[in-house]
Amino acid sequence: MLYSTTKSNLTGLWKRRTKKLEKQSVIGFPVTAEPFEAQINTMLGWAHQRLSKVVCVANVHMLVEAKYNEGFAWVLHRADMLTPDGMPLVWLTSRLRKRKQDRVAGMDIFLSLCEKASKENISIFFLGSTPDVLWSMEQRLKREYPNLKIAGMVSPPFRPLTRDEDAALVKEINDSGAGLVLISLGCPKQEWWMHHHKGRIQSVMVGIGGVFPIFAGEKKWAPVWVQKNGLEWLYRLVQEPGRLWKRYAKTIPLFLLLAFKQLVKVKLGLEPRFGCPQVNVAFGMHGRR
């Protein structure tokens, strides 16, 4: 009887945590418009139930890439949660909803989930990056979160997995008992991977981009004032100009244009202020993968 009551109480807690999420259309994509803690608690609630869920951590680059690629747009629309990582998404969501929207960024998600999972007996599987980065991460995790259950750490090869390799990885993750799988494969690779493994991986999959090398100490995390002022793109550009300047030249102007058009349409009553958009790709559709 004691077991039955405890289980019932936990079920009630999970249901309260996993209430229907409010979403806001941001240039045509359903960004989750909830406070930071509500989004984290929803992930934890799903993890307790070992639900197969997809969480995409969205920034300007991700949304604009999806505007060019119909298949990738479909992936984002099918995600269970699309958190507002980039400050431009936060500002636009706040403006549209006329209330402050928290930023729900990859590193903050990583740190919060590690802290709370260690207290709630949820194990985490780490997928991505290099063996050296994972080793450094493991040492830091053991120091800072000694009670955290690390279900496993895998650095996949920089090539598509064979069918047998993929099946073995799925089995390893599921057999580990992980409630959360934190994935650092880069955009859009990690989003496609989560999309194709939904229903196969019995865990909450969270794509957190380049967080692993930063946590491991191999790359620098932008100062807080840079993050709050939406200048992380400039911080990264200074660090990696050769790799990033073309990306930013392609994505930032288009996002500003689309955001401006959305605000004008809302102001003129041509588009609802709130709501969850349908798949609608306006630029250069390349089809689904």
UniProtKB/TrEMBL annotation:
Keywords: Glycosyltransferase, Transferase
GO molecular function, one term: hexosyltransferase activity
Transferase keyword on record: yes
Keyword check for Aminoacyl-tRNA synthetase: no
InterPro entries: WecG_TagA_CpsF
NCBIfam families from the UniProt entry: wecG_tagA_cpsF (TIGR00696)
Protein's name in the database: Glycosyltransferase
Organism of provenance: Adonisia turfae CCMR0082
